Amino acid sequence: MEKIKYISLDLETYSSVDLAKCGVYKYAESPDAEILLFGYSVNGGEVQVVDVARGEKIPEEVLAALSDESVIKWAFNASFERVFLSIWLQRNYPQYFSSYSICEDTVGDYLSPVSWHCSMVWSAYMGLPLSLEGVGAVLKLQEQKLQEGKNLIRYFSKPCKPTGANGNRTRNLPQHDLEKWELFKSYNKRDVEVEMAIQQKLAKFPVPDFLWDEYVIDQEINDRGIALDMQLVENAIQFDEKSKAALTAAMQYLTGLANPNSVAQMKGWLSEKDVETESLDKKAIIELLKSVPDDIAEVLRLRQQAAKSSVRKYQAMQSTVCADGRARGMFQFYGANRSGRWAGRHIQLQNLPQNHMSDLAEARALVKSGDYAVMDMLYEDIPDTLSQLIRTAFVPRPGYKFIVSDFSAIEARVLAFLAGEQWRLDVFKEGKDIYCASASAMFHVPVEKHGINGHLRQKGKIAELALGYGGSTGALISMGALDMGLSEDELPELVSMWRASNPKIVRFWWDVDRAVKTAIKQKTTVETHGIPISWQSGMLFITLPSGRKLTYVKPRIGENRFGGESVTYEGIGNTKKWERIESYGPKFVENITQAISRDILMNAMKTLRYCFIVGHVHDELIIECSPGVDLNVICEQMGRTPSWLPGINLRADGYECEFYKKD
To answer: For residue 278, is pLDDT > 90?
Structure first.
């Protein structure tokens, strides 16, 4: 065989563990996990399929290349192949497995990600879908993923239900349908061919080397995982079951309904009480509670508690946890097309409920001890308590602590810096409260938190959260302005006042809008506020200070619903389908600001990569470290200004904890 420089590969596998529910780490760890088919191409040559399930052997040179860091391995969603092969090699060919671990780290079971490249990441970088089928369709590749794949995977790669017709077997093997098996081999081969075709199609838009380095850091964090207190998790699930049963019994007693959790039955009961409602969702119940009599309010409050879905997070922990007690694969690199931010997977750390309890540690200890009776006596709303305790299920390993450090008002700082809104930059430099400062600029009076004109701070806060990217009254309402006591009549004035006090940010929106339109119309490059915006080969590129590019596919100038000019491009829209999306200046500014904020977080990860980063949530890092590590040193290093964005004022704050929480 010729010297291997790079391999494109795709696996078809079997495991009794549910991949979608549990993730690849738990899936590969299953004792019955095995490779069925190993499709590969060496140096761009013809695709070979090794029928491992029927006794064929993968060539020794290919096995050796899997841990050889001088050989680049390509796959679509490469983390699946890398993780699965890590476990498979240890079991079957330990001589070809090598890790990148130091003894103190928890990545020892996995091949180094350094020589693994992912064509899904490349696709995402180019603003394309995150599925092989989707990318093939958008790029109009000659070779398309075979449509029969899902059925074949269901047949060969997952357990089957035992029936009389199939001889009560729990798994379909090749000999049970040789025709399907041959089709499965064709499917495996085609996937490698499509993956290679994507590389060829995108060859003139290579992923920069620094982004592959970022991918390596991401894979290290996913491999390291984060420890779970499974005693707490198991007890929380039991507590939830007992609480739901008690709440249902109480509602049955008060309403006489057989199933008070049924929307139809509850609506009928309310109707008998002369209370009409179209919905029983959270918002509708909050509205009803403002006006209904006490006896009905009690039932609605019980229903509200019973509807809390906190148990799902605990169940996701149960599903995902590996044999060593750590949950892995929680982060999808480049999961958000428009900004390149991460997306959460499985437990979804990105959307954990906040905790506001003063006695969090005490409540946690009660659940961990399994004392439901005392819990029931001390806490009126058990589902809410369990919800607030979700974060605390993440723990450092014995002898370690967590340091949690996050950036202060990162998007607001980036936006003010790019726009050159000096009064805001001064606020950040002086360490003042941006919500008070914003309210003061809007209302032309001094505003202090818990002090003079303190009541205006809330208006400043809601304006800050809703209006930075062109939002108007609708954005204020979405952010909860009416729930905070603001009236609908005063919202337009709030929008006007915020924009009047931030003229440079408003100008920045429309400078970007003009630059994007000019770049598309003239097929050229336009720079505004230090951000180059260019049209090239039917794509719009926005180059960030870090050197990373945001990509918009097939941009066009169209007409918006008001009869004015608008920009449209192709991407995954709100329908989760590939479609034409309309955008404008403030929206592009949002993409730019969030993307730079993401790059600043990534810069902090690079600075702190010698630490054991176990998780990150929005603009926050969770680090597992020994007791002697200094919190202030971590925050100082995290808050360092990147070399590519000189002059921006950053600040990172943090705290130490023995379990994860929101301080």
So the answer is: no
